[in-house]
Amino acid sequence: MRVCARASPSLALMKYWGKREGGINLPATPSLALTLGGLETTTLVEPAQGDSDIVVVDGIERDSARYAPFFAEVRKRLRSRLHFQAESRNSFPGGSGFASSSSGFAALALATARLVQELEERAEPSLDLLSELARVGSASAARAVLGGFTQLPAGSPRAEAFLPAEHWPEFRVVAAIVARGEKPLSSRAAMEATRETSPYYNEWIIDAPRLVTKAKDALESRDLPRLGALARLSYSRMHASALAADPPLLYWLPESVALIRACASLRAAGIGAWETMDAGPQVKVLCLAGDLEAVLAGLSAAVGKLECLVARPGPAPEVFIHEEGLAFPSHRLPPA
Asked: In whole angstroms, what is the distance from residue 240 CA to residue 114 CA?
């Protein structure tokens, strides 16, 4: 038996950056996020032939140590004796600042849990349990098991639904691909370096909840200028804390800065374009459907030959049995 799961990455509008001590991937700051419908990780899982877990992502077998805590937690929480072989493919550049770990571990948690349920006749796990399992792999993956707009409170082992995708159908995210290669330092390592060496880290932890409270109100009222301004503050302060680490952590490239300045020019011209960035060089721009073409044109004018992906509030992941002998499942087509 093989199980397939498709999940979209979770983009934090209000950033998660930092882990609490005493737990596995417990977030030090609250985060408010959007499921990026139109971007997708497709993962196929089957029982492994031996006593080792194997994960292949975009054609490359990954270090088993990165996945060992996750698989150990799956076996413990689901009372399973299975080992797993997983193949995962992204419809967007993985490991480069597009939150591929969120959709990757969400899909892996959903698929492994369904496989255990079918082969070992276990009860269907709750969404809370699935979110907790995904969090062991990546804290942002706790949000990616849900659709629409989500939140992950500081110190929480699981994410919570905040608003459905249908709450804001005109909302768009333009994901500008600045560089396709994997980033030199993982988010996990960069968070730890920031926590240990940045003099601004504690101030970031103290300040973040205040921004999240304001952002939730702006999101509920569908106020993009307010939400966009708060998103800019959140990513800027996150990156400022990382830049103050020893040695300094800087993910931005010249093209990243050019796109940030392009968004400022678009706003000055009356076009709603509010950028945000994660731990990587990619720039994501928040806008409304009516401004989408103008935003794409403005970004392309700033950086020649720019490749952009367009996302909207996305649905919850999909899980299904995949019949033996069929080709690897294709990604879902993005919405029109």
From this structure: 41
| Distance separating alpha carbons of residues 248 and 256, to the nearest angstrom | 17
Q: Is residue 60 helix, strand or coil? A: strand
Q: Are residues 181 and 198 in the same domain?
A: yes
What domain range is 126 assigned to?
A: 2-164+317-322
pLDDT at 63: 93
Together in a domain, 7 and 106: yes
Would you state the pLDDT for residue 333? 65
Q: Are residues 54 and 155 in the same domain?
A: yes
| CATH code of the domain containing 183 | 3.30.70.890
Task: Report the sign of the C-alpha dihedral through residues 89, 63, 23, 236, in that order.
Answer: negative
- Which residues, 6+ apart, have CB-to-CB distance to 117 below 8 Å? 123, 124, 125
> What pLDDT was estimated at residue 98?
78
Residue 11, both tokens: 């983009």
SS3 of residue 33 by DSSP: strand
Query: Is residue 302 within a helix (H) or strand (E), and if so which, with residue range?
Result: helix 292-302
Q: Which pLDDT value is given to residue 304?
A: 84
Tokens of 319: 């899980």
Verify that 201 and 73 share a domain, yes or no: no
Residue numbers of the chain with a pLDDT score lower than 70: 96, 333-336
Distances in Å between the alpha carbon of 303 and those of 145, 215, 263, 271? 34, 30, 12, 18
